[in-house]
Design a protein that fits this description.
four-stranded mixed β-sheet; about 575 residues; about 35% helix; binds flavin-adenine dinucleotide; disordered C terminus; about 15% strand; binds succinic acid; 15 helices; FAD/NAD(P)-binding domain; alpha/beta; 3 domains; Methane Monooxygenase Hydroxylase, Chain G, domain 1
Length: about 575
């Protein structure tokens, strides 16, 4: 049992579900749809189904649906980008079943863009050997697909949607999931009991001050799983998108608007302050090199005080039938005319390859709990995700999870009980926002595109201070009737602090540079380290990973910091 504060009152409101799905992004909604007609309770923390990264996706969905394409070619591009860490069986599932799922979406009427002859238009993005990206509304793919799926979900009688429902903790008893503790806008604390739970809570981008991810991407699912003792994998691998619009929004904590990679696929070029096209000297594929290489090349210039620009003027002058309306409006809002001016860009945290360790059916190390979408780490992306493979992952693994959940439960969930958690009263001085922004800034500076042992150790020491502060605040005074926003914000800070700490530890442990993980003190890829790293909460407490290897080279006392979250 993990949600125990036995001196606290018991949660009295209990609801029963056959299956709970947490998250209304592409993965959660697709899983819920594929589970129909089985009864599903779909929980999401936003006031409507729209929340999470899915609705913000621009470029599109990759899939070997073109006449000259094959899943094998898609797989080899995925593996090349993944820098030696892909799990080949997961890649095979992603690319082979990906083509099938994409064809199904097309026949279900997904609003993908078509040419005058009615053929689906295929776009190109970095590190794809050929055109294989389907898109909708030009560069508003996420918005259109999310809207289309939400509409179907809302009309599906077997799916009961609970909005403004913040999942706080997984409830575990006898090594089995029993349900989820949730704070709901109107009802307050509710214990949703269920024998089967699907986590589809998306990514962790909000860990970093510069991110393309929306405010919901606070690593909640990952943190809940870690606290529940699940195995996690490859947490050090965080992908930074090379081209977010560089604007004053970053310092205000807002997501950075994305300037889609599809523009580079159509010929947009990157330039330094002198107007020189620098990527040609860095990689044979120039602007279409793997994402980590382009992102780091931009970052290196920015920290030397240069500016980097994306030149889309030539691309926008071609008649692309409103291919990039989102980028156009983002630029106009920032006072830039992309048809005549170059766009200032900077890398921003975009996608977490690490996550809850899962097999190809989305099964985790906890009985009864499945995961899909960005929160999962199946190994399909290796150390660096290939563009547009993420929406695809949502449908492929969402489908697989739904197929895998047994028809009958074989254990009892009746005995589990949970206690009302502490939501501390915060003075204005300890503004929650200040703690959160401090963590995000630290993560971007020390655990971002370039990492070193000294920076990571410094970050770990700060995380430990934050953990103690969180502990102290919880020990002080609990609010009697917190608002939904107070619970959500406090919960998100706890989750970010925990996951930030573990991402940093994992980054310190990987003494090499590979894919999205770059160490200035270990700049080379070490072939002997081409293995995924799995660990659990318990492993961190005993200073080892799940293979029993010691976390060497650090002086931290992780035991105290970690146990303070319990
Ligand atoms: P999300 O879509 O992030 O959904 C997570 C859901 O979980 C949300 O509904 C959220 O509200 C809910 N949730 C989270 N925590 C809780 C909680 N505690 N309680 C209850 N509910 C909770 N990928 C591509 O393949 N192609 C692209 O073109 C592309 N473009 C992108 C552009 C941008 C700007 C961004 C940010 C990402 C892009 N990606 C793209 C990545 C892709 O969008 C995401 O990886 C993918 O959408 C994740 O889907 P998901 O269903 O796993 O999670
Ligand atoms: C983009 O459109 O550049 C984002 C694509 C992705 O993250 O897969």
């Amino acid at each position: 049992m993990n949600v125990v504060r036995s001196n606290r009152p018991k949660v009295g409101v209990i609801k029963y579900s056959e299956i709970i799905v947490i998250g209304s992004g592409i993965a959660g909604m697709f899983a819920a749809l594929r589970l129909a007609p089985r009864k599903v309770t779909l929980l999401t923390k936003t006031p409507s189904l729209t929340g999470g990264s899915t609705a913000w996706a621009q470029g599109g969905i990759a899939g070997a649906v073109g006449l000259t394409d094959s899943p094998q070619e898609h797989a080899s591009d995925t593996i090349l980008a993944g820098a030696g860490l892909n799990v080949s069986s997961a890649v095979e599932v992603l690319t082979t079943e990906g083509a099938d799922r994409l064809n199904e979406l097309i026949s279900m009427g997904a609003p993908f863009d078509r040419d005058e002859k009615g053929q689906i238009i295929l776009g190109r993005e970095a590190a794809h050997g050929q055109r294989r990206i389907v898109h909708a509304g030009g560069d508003s793919t996420g918005h259109h697909i999310h809207k289309w799926l939400s509409n179907i979900v809302s009309k599906t009688p077997s799916i009961e949607v609970k909005e403004s429902a913040f999942a706080w903790e997984l409830v575990v008893s006898n090594n089995h999931i029993c349900g989820v503790l949730v704070y709901q806008y109107k009802e307050g604390w509710v214990f949703h009991k269920a024998p089967f739970v699907v986590l589809a809570t998306g990514g962790s981008g909000q860990l970093f001050s510069a991110t393309t991810n929306p405010s919901e991407a606070t690593a909640d699912g990952l943190a809940m799983a870690i606290r529940a003792g699940l195995k996690v994998a490859d947490l050090e691998f965080v992908q930074f998108h090379p081209t977010a619009l560089s604007s004053s929004r970053t310092s205000k904590g807002l997501p950075m608007p994305l300037i889609t990679e599809a523009l580079r696929g159509e010929g947009a070029t990157l330039h330094n302050s002198k107007g020189q096209r620098f990527m040609k000297d860095v990689h044979p594929e120039a602007e279409l090199a793997p994402r980590d290489i382009v992102a780091r090349s931009i970052w290196e210039r920015l920290i030397e005080g240069e500016k980097v620009y994306l030149d889309v003027r030539e691309v926008l002058s071609q008649n692309l039938n409103n291919r990039f309306p989102t980028v156009q409006s983002i630029c106009v809002e920032a006072g830039i005319d992309p048809k005549t001016e170059m766009i200032p860009v900077a890398p921003a945290a975009h996608y977490h390859m690490g996550g809850i360790a899962a097999d190809e059916s989305g099964r985790t190390s906890l009985q009864g709990l499945w995961v899909c979408g960005e929160v999962a780490s199946t190994g399909a992306h290796g150390a660096n995700r290939l563009a547009s493979n993420s929406l695809l992952e949502g449908v492929v693994f969402g489908h697989r999870v739904a197929e895998d959940i047994p028809q009958k439960q074989t254990y009892s969930i009746n005995n589990a009980e949970v206690y009302v958690p502490i939501i501390p009263e915060l003075s204005k001085k300890i503004a929650l926002e200040k703690l959160t922004q401090g963590l995000r800034k630290l993560m971007y500076e020390k655990v971002g595109l370039r990492r070193s042992a000294s920076g990571l150790e410094l970050a770990i020491a700060s995380h430990e201070k934050l953990a103690n502060e969180i502990d102290d605040l919880e020990a002080r005074k609990s609010q009697k009737s917190p608002t939904f926003v107070q619970v959500r914000k406090w919960g998100e800070l706890r989750n970010l602090a925990l996951v930030g700490h573990l991402v940093t530890i994992a980054s310190l442990k990987r003494c090499e540079s590979r894919g999205a993980h770059y160490r200035t003190d270990f700049p080379n890829l070490e072939p002997r380290l081409a293995t995924r790293k799995y660990f659990t909460y318990e492993d961190i407490n005993t200073n080892s990973d799940s293979e029993g290897t010691s976390f060497d080279g650090t002086k931290r006392e992780s035991k105290n910091a970690i146990s303070s979250y319990l």
